[in-house]
Amino acid sequence: MGKNIFLAGGPGAGQAAKICNNMMLAINMVGVAEGFLLAQKLGLDWEKLYAITSTATSQSWALSSYCPAPGVVATRRRTAITRRVHAALMLKDVKLSQAAADATGAPTPLAAHALSFYQAVVDAGDGAKDFPFVFRWLAEQKR
Fold first, then answer.
1. Which of these, 77, 90, 73, 78, lies nearest to 137 by C-alpha position?
2. Do 77 and 65 meet the contact criterion of CB atoms below 8 Å apart?
3. I need a labelling partner for 104 at 20 to 30 A (CA). Which of 1, 37, 42, 136 fits?
4. How much of the chain, in percent, has pLDDT values that exceed 70?
5. Worst-scoring range by mean pLDDT, 34-43, 60-69, 75-84, 120-129?
């Protein structure tokens, strides 16, 4: 699926690395969406915010390659792989990460919150939507 190939360790290590990576992506995508939603409420220009944050401490793949705020980056840098990532898939991956965390005793409180978020999105019937849904779904929520 990806262009890079890494040997993660013995049998099952690749799956474990994928679970960790996708858990971090799920958390990061919600964080980027929340940041741009707050920026909207504060009256900030998204392009200017993107220019700042994409070179600052909040820079990440989720921000630079697939910012979920409509019109910022999503239409410019989408790749074939990211178009296949949808809420139900993120939910599955975060559930796997939480099962692994439970089995190992690893504390993952942000992933637990991400699990609740993606579960609510799927329960609302939006499981087939890709990353821009994160922003739209959050925008519809009340504080």
1. 90
2. yes
3. 1
4. 90
5. 75-84
